Each structure stands twice: as C-alpha cells, then as structure tokens.
Amino acid sequence: MAAEGDVDLDLEAEDNCTGKPAEKPRKHDSGAADLERVTDYAEEKEISSSDLETAMSVIGDRRSREQKAKQEREKELAKVTIKKEDVELIMSEMEISRSVAERSLREHMGNVVAALVALTN
Fold first, then answer.
1. Which domain holds residue 65?
2. Model pLDDT, residue 3
3. How far is the C-alpha of 12 from the C-alpha of 115, rounded, in Å?
4. Contact by Cβ (8 Å): 72, 82
5. How many C-beta atoms surround the C-beta of residue 87 within 10 A?
6. 107: number of Cβ within 10 Å
7. N or C end of the chain: which has fewer CB within 10 A?
8. Total domain count for the chain?
9. Would residue 114 count as lying in a domain?
10. DSSP structural state of residue 38
C-alpha cells in the first residue's frame, strides 16, 4: 500500500516525461545588470599632494602632543613615593606583578585602599 507522499512523487515523475530538466522561472536575471550599474558609478577622485601633506602634518602633530603628554604623566607618577610593604600587600592580595602593583599605587598617589578598589573593578 502506498503512502500519500509516494503518490505525489509518482505524479511529479509523470509530468516530466521528456527527460529534460524542468525549466526554473527566471526571477533574478536583472540583478546582474543592476549590480554593474551600481559598481560602475563610482568616481575616482585624485588626492592632491598638498592635502595629503596637510593631513600627515596634523596626524604627526597630534601624535607628538600625545607622546609629550604621556611622558609628562610618567614623570609625575615617578615622583610619587610608595611604600615597599604596600606594593607587597597588593602583589600578594591581587596576585599581580610588581610593576602592575607599583603602577596602580602611583596612579592613586600611594593610597592602598584606592589602588585595591581600582584593581578589583
């Protein structure tokens, strides 16, 4: 006894008796032409050398200012005095390296509690 699904399969096989695959409807043929139209529209712009030089100088100035600010910050942090016991306490409690513990203490002006809170957050 054949199930309903088997009957449907037999009917589909009978419809295509010529041996050629059934032709699929063409829904997306115009898509390739549309894509070419969109991609061909892009205009090429020439960048003048003076604009390029100006942009590079702005970027260079910004980098030098950031570098100078970073060096000044490092000098300020180096002036902060920290206790060896505080560094060892933070190292043991937070299980971090000496340099990270010292950096955190210096950033918080030697305040152990503030350094620990910042490291936990």
1. 53-119
2. 52
3. 76
4. no
5. 20
6. 16
7. N
8. 1
9. yes
10. H
